[in-house]
Amino acid sequence: MKRLLVLIILGLSLCLAGAAQAVSPDEMLSNPALEKRARTISAELRCMVCQNESIDDSNADLAKDLRLLVRERLVAGDTDQQVLDFLVARYGEFVLLKPRLQFSTLLLWGFPIAALVAGGFAILISIRRRRANPAQITPLTDGEKRELKKIFAAPKE
Amino acid sequence: MTVELGHFALVLALALSIVQAVLPVLGARRNDERMMAVAVPAAFTVFALIALSFVALTTAYVLSDFSVQNVFENSHSQKPLLYKFTGVWGNHEGSMLLWVLILSFFSALVAFFGNNLPPALKANVLGVQAWIGSAFLLFIVATSNPFTRINPAPIEGQDLNPILQDIGLAIHPPMLYLGYVGFSVCFSFAVAALIDGRIDAAWARWVRPWALTAWLFLTGGIAMGSYWAYYELGWGGWWFWDPVENASFMPWLAGTALLHSALVMEKRSALKIWTILLAILTFSLSLLGTFLVRSGVLTSVHTFATDPGRGLFILAILVLFIGGSLALFAWRAQTLEPGGLFQPISREGALVFNNLFLTTAAATVLIGTLYPLLLESLTGEKISVGAPFFNLTFGPLMLPLLAAVPFGPLLAWKRGDILAVAQRLMAAFFIALIAVGLVLYQTSASGVLAAFGIGLAVWLMLGAITDLVLKTGFGKTSASTAFQRLVGLPRSVFGTTLAHFALGVTLLGIVAVSTFATESVLVMKPGDTIAAGGYTLRFDRTESVKSSNYTEDQGHFTVLNSSGTEVTVLLSSKRFFPVRKMQTTEAGIKTFWFSQLYVSLGDAAKDGGVVVRVWWKPLVTLIWLGGVAMMGGGCLSLFDRRLRIGAPAKAKLSKARATA
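The joint structure predicted for all components is written out below.
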């Protein structure tokens, strides 16, 4: 994968070279429902020393610590949202792989819909315009008229 | 000596490339045939020179000439020969050299196959190709020279990153680059048309084979990369929405849109201006991808700022080409005649719908990829945009598009009848509904998402077949007539059918593996068993093996079927590379029909066991088989008669000469 090429070029082999691996049995909770929630939450949290990897996928030590922290909070009775809030309070918005909707991410979340609507409108308008004026003949510009005159005026070879 | 020869050839290529960038374009403006005629031999020679330089670098790798810094940093004398070859592009400098090699290769192809092009158009196209080539050659010579020597020469090299020591590196980057860079031809054609201020349906016919070629390589490159990541990284993911993946996916989305809009332009002479813009945008996204990957801007805005040399250089190239071509577009697009008319419900309308959603999807991926960078450099605020965002935005955008795919080829050009088409698709629709029902029944209504996903995939596949059935009149006429018609169909019809069918195949794989995959993470001791997807996996033993440049811990497993008989053995291992002190996971993968059993070996546990991760990945191979089939569809289309004979009619050619 190209992502690997980048990692290598940047010397960021940290996450891949680690001896530990993603979720290991000793981390897992005995309660399967809680463990399932932990996995779901983990997939939405970023391993902050890696490039775009969730803590669920990452081998880095930090990711392991975060996985344990998530499980700790869940065992303590936090809801999923509380766990996420706790991590954001501690590590900032950077930790969320799915940014929350707020002022600074308005453009990000709004963009796909805005682009679709804008594109749709552009198509509608161009269809309307065509229909209103089907035989669209653009009049010659002054320059073209002059050019034409010159051609007609020119003596035949 | 070879190395210096390569270096010299590279500089010479740059010089000649500048000649090719200037003279033909000037010639086209002044209508000077001799100046225009420079383009073809220059294109051939630039290609030959860059090829020579590439061969020189490869020779240095194969001979393990560690006096060359690039070889020292990325090779090792004990490295298997294949990786000595592939290691050439497994690093920044070498991969940039491959980039320009492929660019000059495409220029040479245009020069070779361009005999039926109007001379001015050909000169301009080759000129624009050389603008791109000159910029990147200058970049290589100035900031990323692969031929730099070190003195004294080290005894041994630092080895290639172990993760790259894989057959994937031999296939993936060259294919991806053939795709990325292939779109440069479309870009050059678009810019040449804008310079010329003239464009007609023949233009689309010239551009389409190039767009198709680039697209099919890009498709293959992405599919290959995805499979490589899947088996190499050892956790069974096949798509990560990583910025680097997005960098290759955006041109693919835009390129797919381009293929479809070029069709409208060719057949109906409509959407001209849009097609030109799309050709520019597609290659711009390729350039952006190159910038994102090569400048280091992705890791952090700060590393980019602290080591600005390369990054700023590529940024300058990016601004120059994207900004320049868009400015040219804004300035000249108005001079192009608007094209033919069509009703909203028509083949053209369907293709516009396709373009709307594909470009919106590409734009969504773009903003998701760049937003963190932009936000950080503007406000200093750090956010992450990862897989959950893309799944939530890209997914819904694809749904209406995929649902509409079967309608497209069935609608008539100019004015279509959607009700009649819906009627013809009735059978496909009902079978898809039955599939939805079956999945709901099987999962006792819990797999709603899976059910509709699989329904959509079935709809896509049957919809594609419906088109073929209708076109041959199968079932309505005698079998022999239908067969004769089938044989008589243009190859592009088969191309469309196959590619659209393949889309369904890929979707089926994606849905199945994301909803029905099972995972077990456990500590296993020899003799332990675990069930996975109807099979039982038994852990037999571990073994240490030494190879030329790594040591390996192998885990031996046996796969048993439901009745307890041994089906096959499976080997999953971890490799340790002493030179780089790095460890890689070699997942053990066994394919059963289209599904796979995926076993990855973890660390030794405290009590003498080993951590083992076992995944059952139902229908996972369909994801990539679909990609391969899409390539097949592209190939069929490429060899369609109308493209093969390249038939921009002679009349047009002479007319072009007369007006030139």
